Amino acid sequence: MSTHSISDQISGDYYTCRFEEGRSEDTLILNMGPQHPSTHGVLRIILELEGEYIVRAEPVLGYLHRMHEAMAENRSYVQYLPNMGRVDYLHALAWNWAYVGAVERLAGIEVPRRAEFIRVITCELNRLSSHLLWWGAYLLDLGAFTPIMYAFDDRERILDMLQSVSGSRLTYSFFRPGGVAFDLPQPFLDQVKAFIPYMRNRLPMYKTLVTDNIILRKRCEEVGWLPLEMCRRYGVTGPVLRGSGQSYDVRRAEPYGVYPELAFGIPVDGHGDAMARYLVRMAEMEQCLDILEQVIDAMPEGEFIVKGAPKARWKAPAGEVYFAVEGARGKIGVHLFSDGTATPYRCKLRAPGFSNLSCFAEMARGTLLSDAVSILGSLDLVIPEIDR
Amino acid sequence: MTLNLFDGLDILLDSKPEAPTSGIYRNVMLTPHALTSAARRMFEADYHLEDISGLDAAEGYLVTYHFDRFDNRNSTGRIAVRVLVPHKEACLPSIAAVFNGAEWHEREIMDFFGVTFEDNPNPAALLLPELDDSTPLRKAADKRRRLRELIQPGTIIFKAASFDVFDDEAPAPVAETNQGSCEQPDCP
Predict the structure, then answer these.
(1) What is the rounded average pLDDT of the residues A363-386?
(2) Could you report the per-residue pLDDT of B11-29, keeping only the tens digit for each?
(3) A76-308 adopts what CATH topology?
(4) Hey, is the C-beta of B99 within 8 angstroms of any chain A C-beta?
(5) Is the pLDDT of residue A311 over 70?
(6) Beta-carbon separation of A359 and B151 below 8 A
(7) Across A162-180, average pLDDT
(8) Quick check: A23 contacting B, CB < 8 Å?
(9) Which DSSP letter does residue A188 get?
(10) Best mutation site among A337, A357, A383 for testing chain B: the one with the most B CBs within 10 Å?
(11) Is the CB of residue A66 less than 8 Å away from at least one CB of chain B?
(12) Which among A17, A105, A231 has CB closest to B188?
């Protein structure tokens, strides 16, 4: 097996060479990424183009691969927690939750009620900041520069709030098996309370200025059509699936925490195009605010972490467990095997972006190259999560 | 419908684990050659593939396919379809023709464990460099645990007579070395 095959017709690295083999005549092979601005981070896509149309596409992964799953096997259960914030740095708290949830389910740890509320507040704030960054970056991909300035302004407020309680701005490791690291002080809750009406005023402005904009609509409507049946073949979840008309949300399908007690709908759009995915995420931002409002008012007093919560050298009972949560990009799953020692025997991470991106090759076939940028952005990819 | 989902297939074990403590509602062990037919039936029964998870145990590589449904009302919860392959001939049929998303999951397992998937449409390295054969999730022979130390099968509905992996008096498997998998597909 050689890396480079050197001949007159075929040149390039291993992946380009493989890709070239299926090439038809009179087409152009184009490498998009890993440094292309719309591939956010380091995703590479090899495209076969006929004129401006895509004949074939193949994503090449691994540029941000750090082998998080092997790292789980050489440290203790609690020491592995900081890895979670680095898997998906945009919705780090959902990964925190997926992992501590798996450990709690394995060991049968009950989480204090106040901690469950703290988790919902911080996790939903984090979801909102993730969607805001997606929104700004997506529009930047489509050529609109200003929205990301507004998105960062709002997002900054969320980051400031989360920093005040967790100590970090991006790669949170705030949850603990059995609760959370710190209690939420009253000033933080007041800040969140003040933030909700502020954000509610911003969203209609984004709708009038951006969502209803004809240029955006032309770039998103009827672009990247994803039928439901295809979602099922690829295991697509999250807003991408809901943009194809399926009302599926892990918070409802496999309820965890205090979500069953909260009133919230699942935004769905049946059009299955990039615009549908866009609208689902915009609706979810409003839904995040509704959830925040409910939990802030119902916040009970009590402990924020259970007594005797696992410490650094804590030994988990032997067994197997699967725990899933709804992240900003879809279903996050942690599949954990324990042999009764202080170190996980095996920890499999199910990243929603991995499955969501896997349908890109099929979705991009026959579309314009410029639409590929729109499709990629509408999938809301976070490459470190896909590569893990 | 799900009760006879696997009828007529080569099942080794069918059991119901404690769902609230494991997150898995049904546990089905198959022989490798029954895998593609099982996948086809899962597809016809409206399931989607959540992920494919590999595990290196004393008996061999356990590959778990997690399936679930999008419609909550008819869902019976997560089904774990598993196949066990010996370390010496770590080779499975690909289900990427049924669930296209499986292609990447299978390639990931090829990278991490060195298990090969026959008829995978694009069996190239996915996350590791193309010439890397470090298989980082394989364990040293003395570090491997037996499956019954890791998995509680729960209430057993059916068990094939020859299948003794979860029996208490099952003999310990012979420690196998890591070398050998089925013939690598030709890559440029």
Answers:
(1) 90
(2) 888 888 887 788 888 889 9
(3) Cytochrome-c3 Hydrogenase; chain B (1.10.645)
(4) yes
(5) yes
(6) no
(7) 91
(8) no
(9) H
(10) A337
(11) no
(12) A17
> Reduced to 3 states, what is the DSSP secondary structure of residue A349?
strand
A388 touching B, CB under 8 A?
yes
Domains and CATH numbers, chain B: 2-154 (3.30.460.80)
Cβ-Cβ contacts under 8 Å for A312 (sequence gap 6 or more): A76, A78, A79
- pLDDT, one tens digit per residue, over A208-221 is 889 989 989 988 89
Residue A302: count of CB within 10 angstroms of its CB: 11
> Quick one: tokens of A47?
């495209």
Whether B130 and A362 lie within 8 Å, measured CB to CB: no
Residue of A nearest to B46 (CA): A232
CB B99 within 8 A of CB B93: no
Q: What pLDDT score was predicted for residue B3?
A: 55
Interface check A110 vs B, CB under 8 A? no
For residue B175, the model assigns a pLDDT of 64
pLDDT value of position B188: 35
Contact at CB, B51 and A333, closer than 8 angstroms: yes
Taking the Cβ of residue B66 and every Cβ of chain A, the question of whether any pair is shorter than 8 Å is answered with: yes
Model pLDDT, residue A1: 41
Which pTM does this prediction carry?
0.89
Q: Contacts of residue A70 in chain B, CB cutoff 8 Å? A: 112, 136-137
- Is the distance from CB of A75 to CB of A343 less than 8 angstroms? yes
Residues of chain B with pLDDT > 70, as a percent, come to 87
Contact call for B72 and A253, based on CB within 8 A:
yes
Q: Smallest Cβ distance to A233: which of B21, B80, B100?
A: B100
pLDDT over 60 at A2, yes or no = no
Q: Does A12 touch chain B (CB under 8 A)?
A: no
User: Is pLDDT above 50 for B187?
Assistant: no
pLDDT of residue A28: 87
| Mean residue pLDDT across chain A | 89
Instruction: Give the model confidence (pLDDT) of A6-58 as tens digits.
Output: 455 556 788 887 887 777 878 888 888 787 777 777 888 999 998 899 999 99
Which residues of chain A lie closer than 8 angstroms to B75, CB-CB? 253
Following DSSP, what letter does each residue of chain B receive, concatenated? -GGGTTTTS-EEEEEE--HHHHS-SEEEEE-GGGHHHHHHHHHHTTEEEEEEEEEEETTEEEEEEEEEES-TTT----EEEEEEE-STT-EEE--TTTSTTHHHHHHHHHHHH--EEET-S--S-SSS-TT----TT---GGG---HHHH----EEEEE-TT--TT-TTPPPPPP--S---SPPPP--
- Please answer yes or no on whether A322 and B22 come within 8 Å at the CB atom: yes
With CB atoms and an 8 Å threshold, state whether A333 touches B122.
no
What residue ranges of chain A are covered by domains with CATH 1.10.645.10?
76-308
Nearest to A62 among B122, B128, B152 (CB): B128
